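Running log. JK asked me to keep both predictions on one page so they can be read side by side. First protein, sequence followed by its tokens:
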Amino acid sequence: MTAHEPSNNQLGLRERKKLATHEALRAAALRLALEHGPDNVRVNDIADAAGVSPRTYNNYFSSREQAIVAAVTAERSLRIATVLRNRPATEPLATAVIDTVVEQYIGEPAGDALTMITTTPRLRTEFIDAVATIQPPLAAAIAERIGQTDSLIADVLAAAVAAAVRVALQHWVQPPGEGMLSDNGFIVVTDQPLSGLLRDALECLAPVLQAADPHRDRQSQ
């Protein structure tokens, strides 16, 4: 368990079982995909490896691609919200949001998982689509920072951040022939680090984040 995950003491038995099943399914999906190739993995294979029925699998994931990608992205949205909440309350909202998002995306995924995702069209698409999962918890964390727990502004800001991240990932994970091949000839990415692309994309939102910051007048003095 990481420092950002809720402890078992904070969860009921049913919730702990759901989390355990979700983790087992996504871990099995990634392991089987790396061992046999994503196109050679069936839902039944993942369910069997995780010790559950295919019907149970379908309660958690709508496709094998979703399960595979979830193995490297599942905790990201919670980490982003938790880290943002723990940053100094007086830190500029733009700095807090941008730095948090960039930091939590760096190094995820890595190695063989990255190779597989960037060379498999359906996994690339799912990896980019998974950005949507950061929006609800991010909106809640932003609402708390700006002091509006039921805030349309926070929802809009979180949606804008998710859109910026999505654009950055689309520029980073390019279809074959539109990016740069790595030395192994398989990974197709741009020559700019993901951190740079994310920061450049999110900096476009800095004026909007600053305008929503309740401490902006104090920071400008």
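And the second, directly underneath as requested:
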Amino acid sequence: MKEIIRLENISKIYETAGVKTVALKDISLTVYEGEFISIMGASGSGKTTLMNIIGCLDTPTTGKYYLLGKDVSSLDDDHLAEIRNQYIGFVFQQFFLIPYLTALENILVPAVYSKESFSEKEKEAEELLKILGLFDKKNNKPAQLSGGQQQRVAIGRALINKPELILADEPTGALDSKTAKEIMEIFVKLNKEGKTIILITHDPNVASYANRIIRISDGQLID
């Protein structure tokens, strides 16, 4: 089975005004292609720091992080940005859509850095809108969309560059329970189609959609 992620004894220490805070302590974890994993933990448990390292938004203080066999634990910001755009799709609790762009244009934002032609990416974005049930809203701006529709656009944006890995940080946190269920069903469908998904949540109902649940507390994996 293809290995997507390998964390070896990862620790993260922040220092502010001479005071050190251990956010992660000696984390080791392997994730394989096609897995759907939930990382559960209370606020302050270290789950967002772990997500930031997995997503190449931050680097560990000690330890090694291999993404698709490549050691990315000590890369500079430019190389990390390249890795993120090429291999990782992000979905956040806040949708982070650009308010003056349409749904179609928001999905296409990461495609600016793609090697494919823009016209080809535009066709792919329209196809994603059809899959997400939003084709009739493609010219709507975020303010003209419901919360659930905005999150669907955010999922489309995460998928446009065909990432190896989807990272979702509390993706249903801003949604009502019915809409949250619809969004989680999209993630389940994507996983069945072969996408590797890591989802951060504090909600057991959301975590239950995953095939594997990992619990983190005080910066350490406990289960």
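Observation for JK regarding the second prediction: The chain has a mean pLDDT of 92.
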